[in-house]
Amino acid sequence: MWEHEQLVVRTGRRSGMTTMVALHSTEAGPAVGGCRMKTYARITDAITDVLRLSKAMTLKCAVAGIPHGGAKSVIVVDRELTPELRRAVLLDHADLINEFGGAYQAGPDVGTGPDDMLVLRELTPHAYCLPEEHGGTGSSSGPTARGVLAALKAASRHVFGTDDLTGRKVVISGFGSVGELIAKGLGGADITVSDVDESRRTGEFGWVHPDEAYQVKADVLIPAAVGGVLSPETVRHLDVRLIVGPANNQLTDDGVAGLLEERGIVWVPDHVASAGGVIYTLAREDDGADHETALKRVDGIEATVERMLRARG
Ligand SMILES: NC(=O)c1ccc[n+]([C@@H]2O[C@H](COP(=O)([O-])OP(=O)(O)OC[C@H]3O[C@@H](n4cnc5c(N)ncnc54)[C@H](O)[C@@H]3O)[C@@H](O)[C@H]2O)c1
Question: What range does the record give for the signal peptide (predicted)?
């Protein structure tokens, strides 16, 4: 069933590249969601991605109690991206954002950052997370990691009877900006990280090849790379008790949640665990909250997860 309000796909007049916006819902308010810049094997893969990600944003806002709907946008990288081409496609994307008249408000996502939001702002007011020196809140990776750690606290109490992870084995798949901050916030845990980018291997933490990250015996698994990592196949090989992480759309389909439950693995849905970034950004940029107040709202994820897990029994 088609559940989205709109999907618009455009070829940019400056760049000749494809950009798209999926507006899942504006029922609760203007739709927010990141702008992903990524290479896809097929254009239909990009469309599938933007549709799923935008729906997840609606859920994320609803669970977090944010008066916004969900959307997402994708810039399809189909050639080498020179600085000139990057700027051209971002300006093309800003034109597309403007077509929604404020119903879609963009932020950074995988492949984009605050500097890209600054380029969007040249043509559209509907872009969050500008660099701090330009009056924005910058990267949301810090609040996102903080939200995951808050979720992990509540989930650890539920699974292990304590939120002290000292000595517990934790595997983080995806050692990017959020994954690294989570690792640094985990105190005395025995941490192993994994990334397709070998240059991320620092020696500070244990290392496992990305193909094996979902088979390692551990207490906690933290998906912090890409979506679609929990499939019927990967779930069969998992040897963990708890999964909580920031990666969006971790399940290949909703049925995988049931498979995890059957195996006795507690999974905190990504739309709950990864909401710290959007909670923080909107608290600061929409509501004018100060840094500490916005972080307190992010910490509220702990109570949300506690309630959710208690309700599950
Ligand atoms: N940054 C945020 O505020 C935020 C908010 C909500 C959700 N998320 C989600 O969290 C995840 C991580 O975000 P980020 O900002 O750290 O992104 P990032 O791009 O900084 O890091 C992702 C890392 O994953 C690695 N990677 C890619 N494919 C991999 C694979 N198959 N196996 C292992 N590693 C792989 C990349 O090399 C990179 O180092 C993404 O899925 C993102 O959508 C991020």
Answer: none
